[in-house]
Amino acid sequence: MLTRFVIILSVFFISCHTNKSENLQHQLEQGSVITDKRTYDELKHDIAEKRKEYSKAGMSAINITHVKDFWIKTVGTDLYNKWQGTPWDFNGTTEIPQKGYIACGYFVTTILDHMDCKISRVKLAVCPSLQMMKSLSAHQAITNLSYMDHTAVNNYFKKQGKGVYIIGLDFHTGIIVNDGTETWFLHSNYIRRQGVVKETVLSSGALKSSKTKWVTSLTGNNYFLLKWLKGN
């Protein structure tokens, strides 16, 4: 009887350990192991304070690479980790992660709003993604990747290097983050109503199925970054 109990206990332990390991591995693959203990309001406050800190230093005194790295980490990790799993809905407009629903356009503009960008979150969220990009990326080219196959699109972002980009698809939009190691697609995924996910560009069904692909760089746009620093 004791032997049977030990066997059952061992199986239970191994099963739990395996599930935890698989879950951790999945999080690692998605770049989403959550260690930030700040509340969302605290995170937004810290972002605003960092922008002010950069602004006070002035463009001539700051290293633009540090600003880009801040955007990459904050958008691709800090903000995403709070939003991860927030459910998608076509009419979703929530500003609070894990509460309510979020549509793809609202996800993009809410992330930018919470990066302390002075934008019209609602107006930009409901307009076509190409129009959104034109509004955000004045003086920056918007590149048409529609002629490229899926692998070529991934190679394009790798060649562009580290940065944060907006991409517009057929009826969808999201954020591309190249962190120097991997190229990620952050979006509120309508497929199977998955909601906010972070997936590699190569593994994204939404990206692969779209015939239209327009992209613009935010962190490669000094005009955009200067406006952000000034709080304009």
In short:
The protein has about 230 residues and is of the alpha+beta class. The chain contains nine helices and six strands; from the N terminus they run ααααααβαββββαβα.
Architecture, according to CATH? Answer: Alpha-Beta Complex
Please trace the helix and strand order, writing H or E for each element. Answer: HHHHHHEHEEEEHEH
Envelope shape: globular
Distance between the termini: 73 Å
Structural class call reads alpha+beta
Tell me the fraction of residues in β-strands, as a range: 5-15%
User: Cα-atom Rg, whole angstroms?
Assistant: 20 Å
Q: What name does the CATH topology carry?
A: endopeptidase fold (from Nostoc punctiforme)
Helix content: 40-55%
Layout of secondary structure:
Elements: H1 2-29, H2 40-57, H3 64-83, H4 104-114, H5 121-126, H6 129-136, E1 143-144, H7 150-160, E2 163-168, E3 173-178, E4 183-189, E5 195-200, H8 205-209, E6 214-217, H9 222-230
Antiparallel strand pairs: 1-6, 2-3, 2-6, 3-4, 4-5
Which keywords apply here?
about 230 residues; endopeptidase fold (from Nostoc punctiforme); disordered N terminus; single chain; 6 strands; 6-stranded antiparallel β-sheet; alpha+beta; 9 helices
Explained architecture:
The protein is α+β, with helices and mostly antiparallel strands. The chain has one domain (46-230): endopeptidase fold (from Nostoc punctiforme) (Alpha-Beta Complex), CATH 3.90.1720.10. The protein has helices at residues 2-29, 40-57, 64-83, 104-114, 121-126, 129-136, 150-160, 205-209, 222-230, and strands at residues 143-144, 163-168, 173-178, 183-189, 195-200, 214-217. Helix 2 runs antiparallel to helix 3 (64-83). The termini are far apart. 32% of the residues are buried.
